[in-house]
Structure formats: C-alpha cells, structure tokens
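Problem 12. The chain below contains 145 residues. Write out its predicted structure in token notation.
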Amino acid sequence: MKFLKSFAPLSLLVLRLVLGLVFLVHGYPKLVHPSEAMHGFFVSHGLPGYFLNISAILECFGALLLFVGLFTRPAALLLALEMAVAIWKVHSARGILAVTDYEFPLSLAAGCLILATIGAGLASADHLILGEATTKRRASKPSKS
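Solution.
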C-alpha cells in the first residue's frame, strides 16, 4: 500500500477544504446574521454572550485560512480547541458515553488536530511561503548527546 503515500498531499488538501467548508457554513450565520436566539443559546450553556462573536470569527476566518492553507497549524489548533469547548459545554450533557451527542464536533476536532500536527501539505500557501526548508533544517540538526 506504499502507493497511497503519494496521495498524502491530495488527502491533506481535501481534509482542509472539507473542514473549511463545514466551519464556514456554521460560522457565516453567526458572523453575518447573529440573532438573540444564538446569543441566548450560548448563554444558556454557561458561556459568555461574546463567545458568539469569538466562535463566528474563529469559524469564518479559520475556514478561509484552511481553504488557502495559510497559518494552517495555529488556525486548526484554535478550531480544535473551539470544538473541545463545544463538546464540553454543549454536547456532553448526557455524559461521555453518549457519543452520538458529540460525534460531529469530535470528528471536526480530530480533523483539525491532524492538520495542526501534520500541517497543510504541499498544496498550500504555508508550503509556498515557509517551504520545506524549515522541516529539513530541524531534521538535519545534530542531536546533543
């Protein structure tokens, strides 16, 4: 199955685009059309009302960064943390064993965590701007033993 390794750049691109689309679809209404009901939803789950604005900005601009592949690692990490807070405060009311209550944000968090650890891949602005020189430089440093 070594041939699948050659698809890694494409799979990271697809992961970025799919996650970006999901976050954009969920963040856009919060950013452009925030309502009292949305605000009340956040407050009813023990979150400050201004978290509506924070989540809207994180989701919309994080999605755009994922689409382009720019600052992918920090954007994905922030989105994963947002999903962890959503699981903790909103989706886990019936306990940790009720996985069906939080499987969607858990999947989003896992995908974002993968991007935060692996990076955006070759088909990204991160690769164009940062290149692989930083990876090679770190890998080629002699270890101090």
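Discussion. Helices lie at 8-32, 36-44, 51-68, 72-91, 103-118, 125-130, 133-140. Students who got a different answer should revisit the alignment rule from Section 12.3.
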